[in-house]
């Protein structure tokens, strides 16, 4: 039963436009959420017949996609999908005969059968039949008014499936704007899971369509092999821009895995003030405090007020671990700073009147980390003092950066932990789909 429409252009309450399903919650009959919709699986058919919808790909747990047959779906609304409670927890594996709508159909260039004009696929709609099957009946398309991966928008229309042709052909330069729009609300780690599982061709198209900041966030969450592959397929100038947008510690880790010639070329293309901290980080051992640290902690001068310090850590893009404390240093406040004076934890900032100077509440009792300290020593330090970050200070008293707990965990876990999270198969629940 369909109780709502997911596309405002549709007048039919039994038509569901699939891009609008991406990311919505999936519930069992008791009202418990089991996951979120990632994609819809269809089977293309010969003779221009509408594709048959096989089911939904639902992400349950941490980045584990499973298959939910469409016959078990009982309700689809604008903000929820409800199914009958039966769900095989076997990890979804796409078969050769199957097509993923969001990952593979959106942004494809097809042609209108009547005029032969090329159009881009914006969305596709599935509709139920009298036999309880679901078929792809409509296609939302946009006429081309530009060229390349980032075509400008033209006239939009909704046409019947058999009014277009070209879905069966392998397309080069498909673009990825629609796929990205479908997952724009996803956290970078979740989008990274999607990107990891895309075919190499689509992965390249997604990387080309993402803006630098978003791509940088996704790269930070991807396994090393994916990072190297994606960066290697970008134009060198853009690769340098993306590295600048990454956290310095993550960018340095990625650069450290590249051949020396490629690494040096990218560093040369970067802005000098962006490349300098990366060059410093690359001089340290990977599993030392210097190799683990970021060079962009929150630093304030001693005459800053509590209100000013709180304003700095309210920055929405700031890593939560970095936002847990500010480091008080004499000028210059860019790393490597002037003399390091100590740390003020955010809980202390919340307890003090806004006009209070941070110099009066700085914690000077805790010795900072040294850049040569080992990973084990850093982990022990953070665990001993219940910290989520620690200052890294050189022998001359200059703040070099800060090590955060997420980077420590990243290095304590097995090297392939990201692949394990993305690819590990759940315990078999029995049966097949």
Keyword list:
433 residues; alpha+beta; MgtE N-terminal fold; CBS-domain; seven-stranded mixed sheet; six-stranded antiparallel sheet; 16 helices; 31% helix; elongated; disordered N terminus; disordered C terminus; magnesium ion transmembrane transporter activity
Overview of this structure, please?
The chain has about 425 residues and is an alpha+beta fold. It has three domains: about 1-185, no CATH class; about 210-285, Alpha Horseshoe (MgtE N-terminal fold); about 300-410, CBS-domain. The protein contains 16 helices and 18 strands. The protein has helices at about 100-105, 175-180, 190-195, 200-210, 210-220, 225-235, 235-245, 250-255, 260-270, 270-280, 290, 305-315, 345-350, 375-385, 405-410, 415-425, and strands spanning about 15, 25, 35-45, 50-60, 65-70, 75, 80-85, 100, 110, 120-130, 135-145, 155-160, 165, 300, 325-330, 340-345, 390-395, 400-405. The strands form four sheets. Strands 2, 3, 4, 5, 6, 7 and 8 form a seven-stranded mixed beta sheet that branches. Helix 5 (about 210-220) packs across helix 7 and helix 8 packs across helix 10 (about 270-280). It is elongated. Mean pLDDT is about 85; it is low at about 1-15, about 145-150 and about 425-430.
């Amino acid at each position: 039963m369909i109780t709502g429409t997911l596309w405002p252009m549709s007048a039919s309450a039994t038509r569901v436009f699939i891009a609008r399903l991406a990311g919505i919650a999936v519930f069992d009959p008791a009202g418990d959420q089991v996951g979120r919709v990632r994609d819809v699986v269809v089977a293309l058919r010969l003779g221009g017949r509408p594709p048959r919808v096989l089911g939904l790909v639902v992400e349950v747990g941490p980045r584990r996609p499973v298959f939910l047959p469409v016959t078990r779906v009982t309700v689809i609304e604008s903000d929820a999908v409800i199914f009958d409670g039966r769900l095989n927890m076997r990890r979804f594996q796409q078969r050769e005969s199957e097509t993923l709508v969001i990952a593979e159909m959106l942004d494809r260039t097809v042609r209108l059968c009547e005029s032969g004009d090329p159009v881009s696929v914006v969305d596709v709609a599935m509709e139920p039949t009298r036999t309880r099957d679901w078929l792809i009946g409509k296609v939302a398309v946009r006429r081309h008014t530009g060229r390349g991966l980032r075509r400008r928008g033209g006239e939009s229309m909704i046409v019947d499936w058999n009014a277009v042709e070209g879905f069966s052909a392998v397309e080069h330069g498909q673009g990825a704007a629609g796929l990205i729009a479908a997952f724009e609300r996803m956290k970078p780690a979740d989008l990274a899971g999607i990107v990891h599982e895309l075919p190499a061709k689509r992965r390249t198209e997604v990387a080309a369509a993402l803006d630098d900041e978003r791509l940088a966030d996704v790269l930070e969450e991807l396994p090393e092999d994916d990072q190297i592959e994606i960066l290697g397929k970008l134009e060198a100038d853009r690769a340098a821009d993306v590295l600048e947008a990454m956290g310095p510690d993550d960018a340095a880790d990625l650069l450290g895995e590249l051949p020396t010639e490629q690494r040096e070329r990218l560093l040369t293309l970067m802005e000098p003030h962006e490349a300098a901290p990366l060059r410093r980080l690359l001089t340290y051992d990977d599993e030392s405090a210097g190799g683990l640290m970021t060079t962009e902690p929150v630093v304030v001068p001693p005459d800053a007020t509590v209100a000013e310090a709180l304003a700095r850590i309210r920055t929405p893009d700031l890593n939560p671990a970095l936002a847990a404390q500010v480091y008080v240093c004499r000028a210059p406040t860019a790393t490597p700073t002037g003399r390091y004076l100590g740390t003020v934890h955010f809980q202390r900032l919340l307890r003090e009147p806004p006009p209070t100077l941070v110099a009066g509440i700085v914690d000077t009792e805790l010795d900072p980390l040294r850049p040569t300290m080992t990973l084990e020593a850093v982990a022990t330090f953070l665990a001993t003092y219940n910290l989520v970050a620690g200052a890294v200070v050189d022998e001359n008293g200059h703040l070099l950066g800060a090590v955060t707990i997420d980077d420590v965990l990243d290095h304590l876990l097995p090297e392939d932990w990201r692949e394990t999270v993305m690819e590990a198969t759940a315990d078999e629940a029995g049966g097949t789909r």
